[in-house]
Amino acid sequence: MKQSLGLMALVVRDYDEALTFYVGVLGFKLVEDTYIAAQDKRWVVVAPQGSRESSLLLARAVNAEQSSRIGNQSGGRVFLFLHTDDFWRDYQAYKAKGVNFVREPKEESYGTVAVFKDLYGNQWDLVQPVS
Fold this sequence. Notes:
- The protein is α/β, with parallel strands linked by helices and about 130 residues long.
- The two termini are about 25 Å apart.
- Helix content is about 20%, strand content about 45%.
């Protein structure tokens, strides 16, 4: 049996605002952006460059309960783990684009890691795993 995570929903305030950050700042690719008239929503999928199996569905909050989760989908813990093949390239590029790193780079047994916040406050690990 082979299984993988295909999509993970990330609750956002606004589709275009989220696209500006994930595509424009982090350099993710836009996989799909389709309007669904029957539900008055968009199906917006982004993925890191080179990603083959997992993507993020940018899901616009539509009520107060969903809005309350924006930026805190994991209770303040690191929520997502972005693996890279060149930590320092991505770290420097993100810093230059104003990405907020809340934990500076550190060498760990599993690789080089730093924690940053996305535009909503969700915490991400930027990790170059040990090969």
